Amino acid sequence: MEYKIKDFRKELKMSQAELARRACVSRTIISGLENGTIKITTTGTLLKIAEALNKKVSEIFLE
To answer: Rounded to the nearest 5 degrees, what angle is found at the Cα of 35, between the Cα atoms of 20 and 40?
Structure first.
């Protein structure tokens, strides 16, 4: 599974640390999802990240 988290984060000029803070998840999770070392995470984590990016969960998946 690949995600568009980095693309959306960059569009918002947000650092990984800022996204992690807004989503209430660790920066390690953000980094892992962006670089592909973490491929699977919980729906709750994806929901928090999507909300922090003002996106729907379905929008953060690569097509």
So the answer is: 75
Say what the pTM is. 0.92
**CA 45 to the chain's CA centroid:** 8
Contact (CB, 8 A) for 57 and 19? no
pLDDT digits (tens, 9 = 90+) for 18-53: 999 999 999 999 999 999 999 999 999 999 999 999
Q: What is the DSSP string of 6-61?
A: HHHHHHTT--HHHHHHHHTS-HHHHHHHHHTS-----HHHHHHHHHHTT--GGGGB
φ, ψ (nearest 5 deg) of residue 22: -65, -35
Contact call for residues 57 and 43 (beta carbons, < 8 A): yes
